[in-house]
Amino acid sequence: MSFPFAPSTPAPQGGTTPDAPRRIALICSKGGLDECYPVLIMANAARMTGIECSVFFTFYGLDVVTASRVDDLHVTMVANPTSPMPTMVAGLPGMSKLTTTFMKKKLDELDVPGPREMVGMLADSGCELYACELAMRMFERTADDLLPQVRDVITATDFFEKTTGADIIFV
Amino acid sequence: MSDIDPLMARLDAIDAKLDYVVARQRYVEEFVRDMTPVAREGIGVAAAQLADWEERGWFALASELFVLLERLADAYGPDDVHELADNVVQLVDTVRNVAQPDVLELANDATDVIHHADEVEPVGPMGMAMATRDPDVQHGLAIALEVLRQLGRARGGPSVAVREGKPSAAPRRATKGSTPAAPKAAKAAPATGPVQWEGRAFTPEGFLIDPSTWDDDLATKMAAGLGITLTDEHWTVLRWAREDCLASGASPNVRRIATGSGVGTKRLYELFPRTPGKSVAMVAGIGKPVGCV
Description:
The structure holds two protein chains of two kinds. Helices cover 34% and strands 14% of the residues of chain A. Chain A has helices at residues 33-48, 87-90, 95-109, 115-124, 133-138, 156-162, and strands spanning 23-28, 52-57, 128-132, 152-154, 167-170. The interface between A and B is medium-sized, with 25 and 30 residues.
């Protein structure tokens, strides 16, 4: 007698066949601490739910997979309409550092790992991580500058070809 | 002699009555004599008055009023008049309010302005903005806004207080009463109770409800149902997750299992494919993990 309750299999989406697992493709275009977490957490949650997931890091999002910068991502309250801090005050020197420290402390309290560990977790869970070829050239970076978890440096066209049938989510 | 006495007494009585009648006759004659010139004068005045009224068109007006009343009677029944009577008090109130001296003065001033309309200069948007600095204009604007507000309330929107017993209020109240009932019924529908399997109670999703009813045999059967053949490595993860859950009171998430049991994220996804967090909790007989990391 088999176990009657298999973990709920997410319904297939897009142009995939009914048997194919659900797929999503996230595009990470921003490198702020607060801007990269949604991508990393959503990708991780997708993997935990059995959804196949690919992430494309482009423009400032490239910082999230750049070894020298991933631990130095910042958050700023400038021009953030949801922030209680007035923009004039948020623009003062040192404010970005202060808010970053505050947010990192909060995330630590919630047991949310840092971006570097999140990227490692994603790669281990089978999430495919790609860096944007054009952004690499623009920021004058080479494959050696990137975290080892990045699978490949590809163009946007390549990414869309690799993620055929996936739901595209731009962040 | 004795027969004559009553007769005499009666004659006396008749005589007295006769005197009275004569006196009255005299009074009447005197009255007529006195009143005749006065009455003559009165009739003259009355005739003159009637002629005057006729000249001024009172009678023509009265006859026209009769025609008007006839028409009103044709068009309106007693019920209409009765209904009108209810509003008469309000009507009179309105008239009295309008007839207040200050209101009339205001109306006079307003017509004055209209009479001198050619003296004021045309005003553009800038001039309008400048004019709002005048305290009189400011007060006027405030009053105008208040009047607008009253007009807006008169449209019968949601801010209008619904009067008791009005037929128009009945359907509105009925819909108010019926809307909260609908979601309740919809909410009750998807509720499903625990599912029995292998003599134990499970949630509809497949999580063991009472962790103490778990044993190795059940875990093997559940894993087989998920397509997993349990190895020593699996058992290490399962036992660690169980212990952690019983110690902390919450099912561990993927990251906690991966680091706590020492197998690592990558291996965990290989041991329990697709949904490691849920699968581990399921086979280990603990609750569904919460959290998204």
